[in-house]
Amino acid sequence: YNKLSLVDIINQDKIMQSEFQEQHDAIEARDAAELIDGCIDSLFTTLGMLQKLEGLKVNVNAAMKQVAMDNLDKFPKTEQEAIDTVAFYANKNVECYYLYMKEFDCYVVKDMNGKVRMPYNFKPTDLTKYVTPELLAALEVKDVQ
Length: 145
Prior knowledge:
Blueprint: H1 6-29, H2 32-55, H3 60-71, H4 79-90, E1 96-101, E2 106-111, H5 133-139
Antiparallel strand pairs: 1-2
Protein backbone atom coordinates (compact mmCIF):
# COMPACT_ATOMS: atom_id res chain seq x y z
CA TYR A 1 0.00 0.00 0.00
CA ASN A 2 1.23 3.41 -0.82
CA LYS A 3 -0.85 6.02 0.92
CA LEU A 4 -4.26 4.95 2.11
CA SER A 5 -6.90 7.58 2.61
CA LEU A 6 -10.20 7.98 4.35
CA VAL A 7 -11.88 7.23 1.01
CA ASP A 8 -10.12 3.83 0.88
CA ILE A 9 -11.32 2.98 4.37
CA ILE A 10 -14.86 4.16 3.67
CA ASN A 11 -14.98 2.15 0.44
CA GLN A 12 -13.80 -1.00 2.21
CA ASP A 13 -16.43 -0.44 4.89
CA LYS A 14 -19.12 -0.14 2.19
CA ILE A 15 -17.97 -3.43 0.67
CA MET A 16 -18.09 -5.07 4.11
CA GLN A 17 -21.59 -3.69 4.79
CA SER A 18 -22.76 -5.02 1.43
CA GLU A 19 -21.50 -8.51 2.21
CA PHE A 20 -23.06 -8.46 5.68
CA GLN A 21 -26.34 -7.38 4.07
CA GLU A 22 -26.12 -10.28 1.60
CA GLN A 23 -25.59 -12.61 4.54
CA HIS A 24 -28.61 -11.14 6.32
CA ASP A 25 -30.72 -11.39 3.16
CA ALA A 26 -29.73 -15.04 2.75
CA ILE A 27 -30.93 -15.77 6.29
CA GLU A 28 -34.21 -13.97 5.61
CA ALA A 29 -34.63 -15.94 2.35
CA ARG A 30 -33.60 -19.21 4.08
CA ASP A 31 -31.01 -19.65 1.30
CA ALA A 32 -28.34 -21.93 2.78
CA ALA A 33 -25.85 -21.66 -0.10
CA GLU A 34 -26.06 -17.85 -0.12
CA LEU A 35 -25.65 -17.80 3.65
CA ILE A 36 -22.39 -19.73 3.35
CA ASP A 37 -21.26 -17.43 0.53
CA GLY A 38 -22.22 -14.28 2.42
CA CYS A 39 -20.50 -15.42 5.59
CA ILE A 40 -17.27 -16.25 3.77
CA ASP A 41 -17.40 -13.04 1.74
CA SER A 42 -17.96 -11.10 4.99
CA LEU A 43 -14.84 -12.70 6.43
CA PHE A 44 -12.73 -11.91 3.36
CA THR A 45 -13.85 -8.30 3.17
CA THR A 46 -13.13 -7.92 6.89
CA LEU A 47 -9.67 -9.38 6.28
CA GLY A 48 -9.31 -6.78 3.53
CA MET A 49 -9.97 -4.03 6.07
CA LEU A 50 -7.37 -5.57 8.38
CA GLN A 51 -4.89 -5.51 5.47
CA LYS A 52 -5.59 -1.81 5.05
CA LEU A 53 -4.95 -1.27 8.77
CA GLU A 54 -1.68 -3.17 8.47
CA GLY A 55 -0.82 -0.87 5.56
CA LEU A 56 -1.31 1.99 8.01
CA LYS A 57 1.26 0.37 10.33
CA VAL A 58 -1.29 -1.01 12.82
CA ASN A 59 0.03 -4.14 14.53
CA VAL A 60 -3.12 -6.13 13.75
CA ASN A 61 -1.71 -9.42 15.06
CA ALA A 62 -0.90 -7.95 18.46
CA ALA A 63 -4.28 -6.17 18.63
CA MET A 64 -6.10 -9.40 17.72
CA LYS A 65 -4.16 -11.30 20.37
CA GLN A 66 -5.06 -8.69 22.99
CA VAL A 67 -8.76 -8.80 22.03
CA ALA A 68 -8.71 -12.62 22.15
CA MET A 69 -7.08 -12.64 25.58
CA ASP A 70 -9.41 -9.93 26.90
CA ASN A 71 -12.40 -11.87 25.57
CA LEU A 72 -11.48 -14.70 27.92
CA ASP A 73 -12.37 -12.31 30.75
CA LYS A 74 -15.97 -12.42 29.51
CA PHE A 75 -16.32 -15.77 31.27
CA PRO A 76 -16.74 -15.71 35.06
CA LYS A 77 -14.18 -17.87 36.85
CA THR A 78 -16.31 -18.52 39.94
CA GLU A 79 -19.93 -19.40 40.46
CA GLN A 80 -20.34 -16.38 42.74
CA GLU A 81 -19.15 -14.08 39.94
CA ALA A 82 -21.71 -15.73 37.61
CA ILE A 83 -24.49 -15.30 40.19
CA ASP A 84 -23.51 -11.65 40.76
CA THR A 85 -23.50 -11.06 37.00
CA VAL A 86 -27.01 -12.52 36.58
CA ALA A 87 -28.17 -10.24 39.42
CA PHE A 88 -26.42 -7.25 37.78
CA TYR A 89 -28.36 -7.81 34.54
CA ALA A 90 -31.61 -8.50 36.40
CA ASN A 91 -31.29 -4.99 37.87
CA LYS A 92 -31.16 -3.76 34.26
CA ASN A 93 -34.27 -5.80 33.35
CA VAL A 94 -32.25 -8.28 31.28
CA GLU A 95 -33.09 -11.87 32.10
CA CYS A 96 -29.99 -14.08 32.14
CA TYR A 97 -28.83 -17.47 33.27
CA TYR A 98 -25.44 -19.06 33.78
CA LEU A 99 -23.90 -22.40 32.93
CA TYR A 100 -20.70 -24.08 34.04
CA MET A 101 -18.43 -25.10 31.15
CA LYS A 102 -16.51 -28.05 32.50
CA GLU A 103 -14.14 -28.29 29.52
CA PHE A 104 -12.94 -24.70 30.13
CA ASP A 105 -13.42 -24.63 33.92
CA CYS A 106 -15.40 -21.42 33.85
CA TYR A 107 -18.96 -20.12 33.64
CA VAL A 108 -20.86 -18.43 30.87
CA VAL A 109 -23.70 -15.96 31.39
CA LYS A 110 -26.24 -15.72 28.57
CA ASP A 111 -29.38 -13.71 28.04
CA MET A 112 -32.58 -15.32 26.80
CA ASN A 113 -31.51 -14.76 23.17
CA GLY A 114 -28.33 -16.76 23.77
CA LYS A 115 -26.05 -13.72 23.72
CA VAL A 116 -23.03 -14.08 26.00
CA ARG A 117 -23.11 -11.31 28.59
CA MET A 118 -19.99 -9.84 30.12
CA PRO A 119 -19.43 -10.18 33.85
CA TYR A 120 -20.54 -7.22 35.94
CA ASN A 121 -16.89 -6.31 36.55
CA PHE A 122 -15.64 -6.66 32.94
CA LYS A 123 -13.06 -4.10 31.79
CA PRO A 124 -13.33 -3.25 28.07
CA THR A 125 -10.34 -3.74 25.79
CA ASP A 126 -8.20 -0.64 25.27
CA LEU A 127 -6.62 -0.71 21.83
CA THR A 128 -5.38 2.89 21.78
CA LYS A 129 -1.76 1.72 21.90
CA TYR A 130 -2.26 0.24 18.42
CA VAL A 131 -3.47 3.50 16.88
CA THR A 132 -0.71 4.77 14.58
CA PRO A 133 -0.03 8.25 13.20
CA GLU A 134 -0.67 6.77 9.74
CA LEU A 135 -4.13 5.57 10.78
CA LEU A 136 -4.94 8.92 12.35
CA ALA A 137 -3.82 10.68 9.19
CA ALA A 138 -5.94 8.38 7.00
CA LEU A 139 -8.95 9.04 9.24
CA GLU A 140 -8.12 12.73 9.16
CA VAL A 141 -8.15 13.06 12.95
CA LYS A 142 -5.59 14.80 15.11
CA ASP A 143 -5.53 12.54 18.18
CA VAL A 144 -6.74 9.22 19.56
CA GLN A 145 -10.43 9.48 20.43
